[in-house]
Specification:
659 residues, nine-stranded mixed sheet
């Protein structure tokens, strides 16, 4: 294929981002031996975590949509070839990732008992359909594989872009769960609708409940098959689709109308005009701009910020170690013994702070569960009204031979409608009540531990200052600076072990409130999983086994009575599971909020351990003789020079990304 920019999308943005990523990884690699040589507490482990993220993060573009919306054709049009020739089958059951490789190949990952991926199994690309599909007659059977990976020599994927094909929505529960479980991993969603039948009730429900709950504010909406709409009607159709998407679109330039099949054929036939007319080029350019500028900025700045913290820590430790090495062995032994008493006291303070946080979490759980019970009661009171006001398409008719079939269809439609209303109500409750409740509780937690944490950090810095009496005055000036944000300091020391700060923490402060921002999507997803998901099976059994519609009832009364009984059964199901759902909600939120407790506990531990390590390392070096002490001093001076160079290049990188 030629180099026409329409035929082969310009990857300048992706390439520039990849160059910045490589620079960041190089700086991490240069800092690693310094952190290792200084033996900075858990610094090596932390730096390894930062490097893994910085080196491996790719741009995951997840294509979602209901079956028969042209989702797979959009994917193949983006890739420029029929990479997924059979994945449009309705029985696709697992996630399929397409990524760069020089040679075409495929891997399949078995699903382990704990839900993780097992060791990959190499297979032929032509064999992959046999692994990723389930029988058409066995829709709800779990697939024994976690995901498939297709490696393909396509320019779109060369610079870290992974295109993710997902099972179609609104097909079967097992397949839909696979898609929902992957949503929070995606950098951007491309939501595909059919211009001939856009924005069904189930599509709106997916956006209301699942996309918003996971914090996906940036979604690209694609109206596919625009070519199948009569030319004189296209403008009206586009206007109507934009109107329906209005409540979900964050920016008006995130809606695109395409002919994906024309783009695919144009790229395969090397026909630039066909590609240009398809509308796909505009979509791809917008995606590239978002990924490399907005999302790419976060992917660089987040690990760069953590690197900056480690640079500061390393520089301060070098200063202290140089001073400690000027002391003799007896002085260092005395110093080491002297600091054990206050450090042991600080360990007791740490236990008090952690216990205080745990008590606060128990109180938070109780408040969340009370709010959850009130929500459930409110919903149970609304269900009959929702049912009464709903006008189903499927209704009972006069033909007795089709009565059972009509009833099944009507009951399914009404129960699905009520389930959807409950899910939307729960999503709104999360946003308007649960989220503010958690924000208030986290702010209360910050205030309740603020004094204790401040005293802890102050005492830590006083102990550090006492290690180097000659530098005590200088150190004490640093103490006042650090005490301006003691909690931020503790979280910066530990956050990479308990939380992926790739989004909410980038460019911001390490506070409990910013951690909550990152945790909220996980909280919402977990809460949604335990609080919604009604099935019509029990409702069928109750209605179809009764004598409700026998007799001379008029059809309109029979249909109204059917809605009432469906509502009664839904309320009964909600009432029967309310206590368990509320308890599970408390479990899920407590589990996520304990991430904050663990981060602070880890930060407190790191502060104590760092002092013991510093003095212990200096003492060990001096005990080994003056030659070792001189060599260590030379290493420290070399480290200091290299830190200055790394710091300058890191500052240039951050400036480059920020502009």
């Amino acid at each position: 294929m030629d180099d026409n920019p329409v035929m082969r999308r310009s990857n300048g943005g992706y390439s520039a981002w990849r160059a910045r990523q490589e620079t960041l990884v190089e700086l991490i690699d240069r800092l690693t031996p310094i952190i290792s040589g200084l033996s900075i507490g858990s610094g090596v482990k932390k730096l390894a975590s930062v490097r893994t993220r910085a080196a491996s993060e790719a741009f995951k573009v997840m294509i979602v949509g209901e079956f028969k919306r042209g989702k797979s054709t959009v994917i193949n049009a983006m890739l420029g070839d029929k990479v997924l020739p059979s994945f449009a089958r309705p029985c696709t059951a697992i996630i399929n990732e397409v990524m760069w490789a020089d040679q075409r190949s495929a891997l399949i990952y078995p699903l382990e008992a704990d839900g993780s991926a097992g060791d990959p199994i190499p297979i032929g690309v032509e064999e992959i359909v046999d692994y990723v599909t389930i029988g058409a007659d066995d829709d709800n059977t779990p697939n024994p594989y976690q995901r498939a990976v297709v490696r393909w020599p396509l320019e779109l994927c060369r610079n870290g872009v992974v295109v993710v094909d997902s099972p179609g929505l609104n097909e079967a529960p097992e397949r839909e769960r696979v898609t929902l479980a992957y949503l929070e991993q995606a950098d951007v969603l491309v939501f595909v609708v059919d211009c001939q039948a856009a924005m069904s009730r189930s599509e709106q429900l997916f956006l209301d409940v699942h996309v918003k709950a996971r914090g996906h504010e940036d979604v690209f909406y694609v109206g596919n098959k625009i070519n199948l709409v009569e030319e004189e009607e296209r403008e009206d159709v586009q206007r109507e689709i934009r109107k329906r998407l209005g409540p979900y679109v964050s920016r008006p330039d995130r809606v695109f109308f395409v002919n994906a099949r024309a783009a695919l054929n144009g790229r395969r036939k090397e026909d630039p005009a066909l590609v240009c007319e398809s509308g796909m080029v505009e979509l791809e350019r917008a995606l590239e701009d978002f990924l490399t500028r907005e999302r790419g900025r976060a992917k660089i700045l987040s690990p760069a910020r953590e690197l900056k913290y480690l640079l500061i820590e390393a520089r301060e430790q070098i200063e202290r170690r140089e001073t400690l090495l000027n002391q003799n062995v007896d002085q260092l032994r005395s110093t080491y013994e002297r600091v054990q008493v206050p450090l042991n006291r600080l360990e007791q303070n740490r236990r008090v702070i952690v216990a205080q946080m745990e008590g606060h979490l128990r109180e938070t759980r109780a408040e969340v569960e009370d709010a959850g019970r009130r929500f459930m009661q409110r919903v149970m009171g609304q269900v009959p009204t929702w049912a009464r006001e709903y006008d189903p398409e499927n209704k009972l008719g006069a033909n007795p031979f089709k009565a059972r079939e009509k009833m099944e269809m009507a009951v399914r439609e009404i129960s699905d409608h009520l389930s959807g209303r409950i899910q939307v109500a729960f999503a709104e409750w999360q946003e308007k009540e649960l989220k503010p409740l958690l924000q208030r509780r986290v702010e209360d937690l910050e205030r309740s531990i603020d004094d204790d944490v401040k005293q802890f950090v102050t005492r830590i810095d006083e102990i550090r200052a006492s290690l180097t009496p000659a530098e005590a005055e200088t150190q004490m000036f640093k103490v006042s600076d650090k005490n301006a944000a003691p909690l931020e300091r503790l979280l910066a020391d530990a956050v990479s072990f308990v939380l992926d700060p790739g989004t909410a923490l980038s460019g911001g402060k390490f506070s409990l409130r910013t951690m909550l921002t990152t945790l909220l999507p996980q909280i919402a997803v977990g809460a949604l999983a335990v609080m919604v998901g009604l099935g019509p099976v029990a409702i069928f059994a109750m209605l179809l086994g009764g004598n409700l519609f026998r007799g001379a009832l008029q059809l309109n009364k029979a249909n109204q009575r059917m809605k009432e009984q469906v509502a009664e059964q839904v309320v009964e199901e909600l009432r029967g599971r309310a206590d368990v759902d509320v308890q599970n909600l408390g479990d899920e939120i407590t589990k996520q909020l304990r991430v904050m407790r663990d981060a602070i506990a880890q930060g407190l531990d790191s502060e104590i351990k760092s002092i013991r390590d510093e003095v212990g390392h200096a003492l060990k070096t001096k005990e080994q003789g003056e030659e070792d002490a001189k060599k260590t001093g030379a290493d420290l001076r070399r480290y200091s020079s290299e830190l200055n160079r790394i710091d300058e290049q890191l500052a240039d990188l951050i400036m480059d990304v920020a502009l």
